[in-house]
Amino acid sequence: MNPAKIRLKLKRRRARRDRQKRLYEKTGRRGHKKAARVHQRAVKKLRTLLDRLTTVQPVSNNGIRFIAEFEGFYSKPYNDPVGFATVGYGHLIRYGPVKASDHTSVWLKGQRTPGRLTEAEARKLLKERVAADYSPPVRALFTDGPLKGKFHQGALDALVSFAFNLGPASVQGVPGFETIGRAIESGSLAQIAQALPLYDKAGGQALAGLTRRRKAEAHLLLTGMYHY
Asked: Residue 92: how many CA atoms within 13 Å on its side-chain side?
């Protein structure tokens, strides 16, 4: 559910509760007292639901699937569109091309075959790297940063996807990411959604896959829907 809609329902329930309390105080009729209690129970339920939805959580399983779908699975090291060595679901090996040694490397504790990942291993590696490097800076935006109070799971997952693709610094307003940085600082999810599609280039060229990904992230950010 949308937290904004829950807040509106909560506001209306409180108003009805307070109205019934005033009527009871004015008339002494037990029916108004009973109605006030009914509205108070509803207020408590809505508060609980709102707290659950707005408490900043780690990236969700849906978010991991979202990232994995756009990254694609590669069991062996390969060079990504800008020539960086990558493996699994977008795991960056280095800011440079694949080397011969990569074909005998181990990237995950318990990896069965050096230089090669199974899909299950790649998914585990993705979860570990997201949790360690990409989710924390995004969660900070919703916890103590400019997006405090704007959390919903889809918004966090969308920005984690963006950060995973372009690096954790991409959500921190560093040089090269000034536009998205200003949008984040504004605290407006709508402005962030407008800025995301600008970052669809690799090596200076727009890539259809990145264009689709940015649009999907913007859609997820605004609607909480993982399918675009």
From this structure: 17
